[in-house]
């Protein structure tokens, strides 16, 4: 519980039900920026109109701003305005006025990286969700859409490139070595989509012709030496543009599309209209410095931000409670794009792994919220795996239940109806209903209820009548503020396989479990059936079934849905490991046999084999247990790794040799081979073979690409062999000047399972290359350590203390990024009393710290509640 003092300090709670349409609209906006890193002058000229009959003043949001001048219809004002906290209130007599304000801000002093800030000597903006108000007084809410014209002035040598949204309508030189540019965006947009860049950067320029023949100039801006690393991002951009035309009928709508990469960024990237700004880790890629996972990250994020041009920009969100309207939908779109570019099965496995690693724990913990939350203190805390990834699963279920044609018709109707406006999740569902004729009344519960549903599946067989009966029962667990839940429609793709024949009995069925319970009868089932359920992960739920180890091993070999094969193997591994932790006894036999079958199945591709061989993470195993015992989990998992390594050593060595590439290629086959190769290396190492560390060091040294080098580095970082120190030193020497690769150097060491990892992490936090100011670097050390179950939960609480210390320091600089680091401590309820007390004590210490940001306050107070 919050004590009186903390409760008094609590920031106000914003509720969805309190939504009111804006008092004033702002059809036209003109902004002027006299740019300078230390002192930038900003002037705003806003045409405002009263929205409805009321006498309320104009409220312009501000954050840390002091008005230097306020003018109404061109007249300077002394008394017509007043400050209300950070906001500026202006009494306006008429229904339409022109309001001007002027402020001065310091981009180089902006450590929050929200609003206008400096990164690597360049200036850029981040406005979503509420950064715009840090630059000028404004109606900073997503349902107020304006046409913008922008004039920027800056020193020409220092900032030769001046970019904003829309089209450049004027530019030229000024006295004193300065120059200017004017940009006009013809599309009305909310403030969160505004962007500006003043920089010394070079562009990779290309072009795309839309299907209706409109030429678009594409440019990716980076520091000049990085130009060769932008080819993959450019290819992904063009592929995304073509895909959105083909699959959704959506064309790009302006003459140019710019992407700017910066090194200091709070998250992945930002979809500002025609001027996307990216964390450089999602733009830059070449074989020497980027892993295959990095390459996939680049194309996925480029696609995601591009797709927002329709799902987010042309149709935006009425308020921040509707965030999943654009984010869930756009994640679904980028997932589908990636699935179409390569292996759909592997993509689905990766997406589900991420959902289970990031979203399921959120749904099961103190920060659980529905994809459309009901309230918040700080909206930045709601850019969550629930809003994004569970949100995408909810769109995917609509796609599954309606089928691709009706789903597409629903999207077309949604875009046609709401183009140029700020919409709600409800608008999206209504468009789907209207276009498909399907009643989605109960489906709406997925938007309002938090928590991961559980479905119990029991299959009984009656050989005499050749019948099988499947009973399904759902429960939706209580979550904070939602003790009681209603059953939700759960679409489950289901098939039965004959245990002896190995064949499916009939076509796969799509069963929608509408109520708490249902029974499904299968006829013509002569031999004992094995149940394959939630195929393709058709619903974001947990399935509890009593399938035996033999059934799971059977499915892992015979199921014709690749996801279901993967899933059966995972379940077999999880059951084995959970059993081992709770009984202390382990029978690894069935897992070893199943792994042997998959590993030596010539029909399977390496990427799929690699995915299937990955053991469930320690965190995921913990999620299955009543009380998490990190040490016992680690031991059980390592014992299984050792046994798999030792008993299949020959097979691993074959797989390792088979997947040795001659030269680097980015084809799915080559990527799959690299994936399997490092996984095999890990198992050879786990086998304890004497030559293993030598093999790893050879891979590390001879690699012609970062995937192989980083793979070997990760394996060595876990080991006690002297080769580990050789690799750490060599990696640093080779990449000390490349920030993105240095992040890997930090994170790989922080993920190590060596007993001295926490000492090493503390040492690294004092390393000259470590800094709290760069979010990527911070996450690479502190974020990685708190994801390392064994190390973070070290008895005695040193990991907890380290995280809390770091977090408090970061909060003073960058509250948004600090708040993202809180959730691992919020899981205290899942641990033994000793650990839980230590975790709570750190949360309490933070809560008791004066001057905590509202970002961190919200996360910490909810974690303790
Ligand atoms: N819309 C942005 C996220 C903004 C996050 C603000 N805390 C990027 C994206 O989802 O595409
Ligand atoms: Zn997004």
Could you please describe the fold and organization of this structure?
Helix 25 packs parallel to helix 27 and helix 27 runs antiparallel to helix 28. The strands form eight sheets. An eight-stranded mixed sheet has the order 6-5-9-3-2-12-15-14, with no helix packed on it. A five-stranded mixed sheet has the order 17-18-19-21-20, covered by helices on one side. Strands 10-11-16-13 form a four-stranded antiparallel sheet, with no helix packed on it. It folds into four domains: 293 residues, Immunoglobulin-like (Sandwich); 134 residues, Neutral Protease, domain 2, CATH 1.10.390; 93 residues, Immunoglobulin-like, CATH 2.60.40; 130 residues, Peptidase M1, alanyl aminopeptidase, C-terminal domain (Zincin-like fold). The model has no long low-confidence stretch (mean pLDDT 97). It is globular and about 90 Å long. It contains 28 helices and 31 strands. It has 865 residues and is an alpha+beta fold. It binds (3S)-3,7-diaminoheptanoic acid and zinc ion. The site of (3S)-3,7-diaminoheptanoic acid has 12 residues, from strand 20 and helix 3. Zinc ion binds next to helix 4.
Spatial strand sequence of the major β-sheet: 6-5-9-3-2-12-15-14
| CATH topology heading of the largest domain | Immunoglobulin-like
CATH architectural category of the largest domain: Sandwich
Round the mean pLDDT to the nearest integer and report it: 97
How many helical elements? 28
CATH-level-4 superfamily name of the largest domain: tricorn interacting facor f3 domain
**What coarse outline follows from CA principal-axis ratios?**
globular
């Amino acid at each position: 519980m919050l004590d009186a003092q903390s409760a008094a300090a609590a920031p106000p709670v914003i509720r969805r039900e309190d939504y009111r349409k804006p008092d004033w609209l702002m059809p036209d906006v003109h902004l002027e920026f006299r740019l300078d890193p230390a002192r930038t002058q900003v002037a705003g000229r806003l045409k405002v109109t009263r929205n409805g009959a009321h006498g309320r003043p104009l409220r312009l949001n501000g954050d840390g701003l002091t008005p230097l001048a306020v003018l109404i219809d061109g007249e300077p004002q002394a008394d017509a305005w007043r400050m209300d906290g950070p906001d500026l209130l202006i009494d306006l007599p008429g229904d339409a006025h022109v309001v001007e304000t002027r402020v001065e801000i310091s981009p180089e002093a902006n450590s929050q990286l929200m609003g206008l800030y400096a990164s690597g000597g360049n200036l850029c903006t981040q406005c979503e969700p509420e950064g715009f108000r840090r630059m000028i007084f404004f109606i900073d809410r997503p349902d107020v859409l304006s046409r913008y014209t922008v004039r920027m002035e800056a020193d020409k040598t220092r900032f030769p490139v001046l970019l904003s949204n829309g089209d450049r309508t004027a530019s030229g030189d000024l006295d004193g070595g300065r120059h200017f540019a004017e940009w006009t965006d013809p599309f009305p947009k909310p403030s969160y989509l505004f962007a500006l860049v003043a920089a010394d950067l070079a562009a990779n320029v290309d072009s795309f012709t839309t299907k209706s023949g409109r030429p678009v100039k594409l440019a990716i801006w980076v520091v000049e030496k990085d130009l060769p690393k932008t080819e993959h991002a450019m290819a992904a951009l063009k592929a995304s543009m073509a895909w959105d035309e083909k699959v959704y009928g959506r064309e790009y709508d302006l003459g140019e599309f710019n992407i700017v990469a910066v090194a200091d960024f709070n998250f992945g990237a930002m979809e500002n209209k025609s001027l996307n700004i990216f964390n450089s880790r999602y733009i830059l890629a070449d074989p020497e410095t980027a892993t295959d996972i990095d390459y996939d990250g680049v194309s996925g994020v480029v696609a995601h931000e591009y797709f927002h041009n329709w799902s987010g920009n042309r149709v935006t969100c009425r308020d921040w409670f509707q965030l999943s309207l654009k984010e869930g939908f756009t994640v679904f779109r980028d997932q589908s794009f990636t699935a179409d570019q390569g292996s759909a099965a592997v993509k689905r496995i990766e997406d589900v792994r991420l959902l289970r690693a990031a979203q399921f724990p959120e749904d099961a913990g103190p920060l659980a919220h529905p994809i459309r939350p009901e309230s918040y203190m700080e909206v930045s805390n709601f850019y969550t795996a629930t809003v994004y990834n569970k949100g995408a699963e909810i769109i995917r279920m609509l796609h599954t239940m309606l089928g691709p044609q009706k789903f597409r018709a629903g999207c077309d109707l949604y875009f046609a109806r709401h183009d140029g406006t700020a919409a709600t999740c409800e608008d999206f569902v209504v468009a789907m209903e209207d276009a498909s004729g399907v009643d989605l009344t109960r489906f709406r519960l997925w938007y309002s209820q938090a928590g991961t549903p559980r479905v119990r599946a029991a299959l009984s067989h009656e050989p005499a009548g050749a019948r099988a009966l499947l009973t399904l029962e759902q429960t939706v667990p209580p979550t904070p503020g939602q003790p009681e839940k209603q059953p939700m429609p759960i679409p489950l793709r289901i098939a039965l396989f004959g245990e002896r024949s190995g064949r499916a009995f009939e076509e796969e069925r799509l069963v929608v479990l509408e109520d708490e319970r249902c029974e499904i009868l299968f006829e013509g089932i002569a031999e004992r059936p094995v149940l394959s359920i939630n195929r393709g992960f058709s619903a974001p739920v947990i399935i509890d079934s009593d399938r035996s180890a033999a059934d799971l091993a059977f499915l892992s070999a015979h199921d014709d849905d690749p996801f279901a094969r993967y899933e059966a193997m995972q379940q077999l591994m999880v059951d084995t490991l959970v059993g081992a932790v709770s009984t202390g006894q382990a029978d690894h036999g069935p897992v070893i046999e199943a792994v042997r079958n998959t590993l030596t199945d010539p029909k399977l591709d390496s990427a799929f084999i690699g995915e299937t061989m990955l053991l469930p993470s320690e965190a995921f195993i913990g999620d299955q247990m009543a009380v998490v015992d990190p040490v016992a989990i680690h031991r059980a998992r390592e014992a299984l790794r050792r046994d798999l390594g030792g008993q299949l050593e020959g097979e691993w060595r074959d797989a390792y040799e088979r997947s040795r590439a001659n030269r680097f290629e980015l084809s799915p086959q080559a990527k799959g081979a690299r994936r399997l190769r490092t996984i095999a290396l890990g198992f050879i190492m786990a086998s304890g073979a004497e030559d293993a560390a030598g093999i790893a060091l050879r891979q590390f040294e001879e690699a012609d690409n970062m995937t192989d080098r980083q793979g070997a580095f990760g394996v060595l970082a876990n080991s006690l062999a002297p080769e580990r120190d050789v690799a750490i030193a060599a990696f640093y020497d080779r990449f000390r000047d490349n920030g993105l690769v240095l992040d890997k150097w930090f994170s790989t060491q922080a993920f190590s399972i060596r007993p001295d990892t926490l000492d090493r992490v503390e040492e690294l936090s004092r390393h000259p290359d470590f800094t709290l100011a760069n979010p990527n670097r911070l996450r690479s050390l502190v974020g990685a350590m708190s994801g390392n179950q064994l190390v973070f939960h070290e008895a005695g609480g040193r990991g907890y203390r380290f995280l809390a210390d770091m977090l408090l320091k970061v909060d003073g600089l960058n509250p948004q990024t600090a708040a993202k680091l809180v959730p691992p401590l919020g899981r205290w309820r899942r641990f033994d009393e000793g650990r839980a007390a230590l975790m709570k004590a750190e949360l309490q210490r933070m809560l008791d710290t004066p001057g905590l940001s509202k970002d961190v306050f919200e996360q910490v107070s909810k974690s303790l509640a």
